[in-house]
Amino acid sequence: xxLRKAIGLILLLVLTTGLMGQYYSSDSKKAIKxxxxxRTCLEQLDNACVEESLLKAIKADNQFIEAYQMLAQLCYExxxxxxxxxYYARTLEIDPEGNxxxxxxxxxxxxxxxxxxxxxxxxxxxxxxxxxxxxxxSRGAIIRESCLFALEAIKHxxxxxxxxxxxxxxxxxxxxxxxxxxxEKMLMYTVMLPVANQTGxxxxxxxxxxxxxxxxxxxxxxxxxxxxxxxTPDNEGAQSLTADGRTLWYTACNxxxxxxxxDLYYSxxxxxxxSSPKNAGSPVNSRYSEKHPAISADGRTLxxxxxxxxxxxxxxxxxxxxxxxxWSDPVNLGDTVNTSGLEQSPFIHPDQQTLYFSxxxxxxxxxxxxxxxxxxxxxxxxxPENLGYPINTHDDDIGLSLNARGDRAxxxxxxxxxMDTDIYSFEMPVELxxxxxxxxxxxxxxxxxxxGIKAVLQLIDLETEEAVMELESQPGEGDYLLSxxxxxxxxxxxxxxxxxxxxxxxxxxxxxxxxxxLRRDVPLxxxxxxxxxxxxxxxxxxxxYELEPASxxxxxxxxxxxLLNPAVGVEISGHTDNTGSPELNQSLSExxxxxVVDYLVNMGIETKRLKAAGYGETQAVADNQSxxxxxxxxxxxxxILAIDE
Length: 645
Description:
Elements: H1 2-15, H2 29-43, H3 47-60, H4 65-77, H5 81-94, H6 100-112, H7 116-127, H8 137-155, E1 163-164, E2 174-180, E3 186-195, E4 205-216, E5 219-220, E6 224-225, E7 237-241, E8 247-253, E9 262-270, E10 273-274, E11 278-279, E12 290-295, E13 301-306, E14 316-323, E15 326-327, E16 331-332, E17 343-348, E18 354-359, E19 369-376, E20 380-381, E21 385-386, E22 400-402, E23 408-413, E24 422-427, E25 437-446, E26 456-461, E27 466-472, E28 479-485, E29 489-495, E30 502-507, E31 518-519, E32 522-524, E33 532-534, H9 552-564, E34 568-575, H10 582-603, E35 610-614, H11 627-633, E36 635-643
């Protein structure tokens, strides 16, 4: 309904241009009197009176254009779209040449009603007027493009079989904005509830609260109210969860703590309850409106909609990135994504490169369609792709989220009843899916006493050397959940104050169907003499001591560790399996250790802090009879030799 009203302001306020002036198309005093009565009723917000007076005006003069225009606007605002179309079409019948903009506006109304062929004819009629007689040919062109797209899309529907999530989730009220945790165990959504007045009579207003359902034994359990402090007497909605389900972002409007009309807030799951929500503050929030947050899986990138200056339309999609506890100045996603229309309801998949959103500015089926765009390494965001019919229809389609695998989408709709919205899911067509995402859970702990540690976990793409994910394990517990987009090779680095860093690597190249979650506990060694860490992401060419380019990520981590701990002296040691002669293995292990030391010296580490040692095949940590064991024995280690006081 908000989108309907927004479009109403864009389209239909133009319809009544001149209504408040002194000129009327009617000479009938009786008709004009009734029309003026309608204006008075409008000022008093008496819609029934407005309609009655306008109908009397038309009865007095059935050529009264202004009366038909105001009736069209009234019907539109009440959701009576077909009647609005009929009334406004009558104005063009009365005067086919005097109002060229009327053809564009009526074409827009018919597009919203799904009358694509009729809308196309009207748009082409509008564009056929001489350029000096039309005011918004670009909008007329978009309507024509949308009609052409819609007519073609209907001929080639995409697979779409929505399934209602059932009575455990849905009710006689409206449910919408579904948000799913990455392991698909919790679904959070917004519910529009009636609020009883103090006299106990029928409710006078509706109120938005958060509810959630958990997945257990193949079905959704009965929903629960999220309760305080999330839910308040005010409205809360349009929420987004991080992958681990522990941080919730949402929209709240007209709050005392707000900076503008609507602001973004967040809350953190602490133990067994949500923390008191906090306003995200500047620069994310402004004196304008910020809505519809979409937080990335690791909580480092925030997408949202705003009408702040610098945008292209009424609301655009913006992005801000977090470093530590600080958010960057929001950046507009630009004209590759945003238009002069209305962009809203962004959803960033846990792959962190596929963005779904709603737009009225790109060619589509009607009032607002769902699109996807993909973030590429070189070219930025791709041109948005319409999700197609019947995922999109002439109705207002907003709010979509996907599971981590990317094969199932969740959305809200009133298509079945035409009344209150329910939450549905459907299998996403293959060509519209994001990169599948698995996830890894575990616990970071002290290697000696098993106490949980708050640590930073960083997932790095070994090909691009870029951090794909970065998050912190839970303070005191050490638990973590890390999303793992498939089709990449990763380095995992874990670090905490006072501990040696930990490294590991995962090979997901080509495993597009990899969805089984991994479990990996991470033991950290305190920085003390004798502590050892295996440099899992130092790679050499086969049978050589030449460092592979993918080793740079790990060696940068070693470099950073040595910079942060200037009193530490270390040994870099090379180890091999038992393939080949002991003499060759000894020589190779020494050369590999020296390659690492030389690399670090070239980066600026003092030679006296580094010792290269080779142990060949003499310090095996696994059985050399299997390939897995031999791979574990081929390793490079860092050992603390001294800590100067």
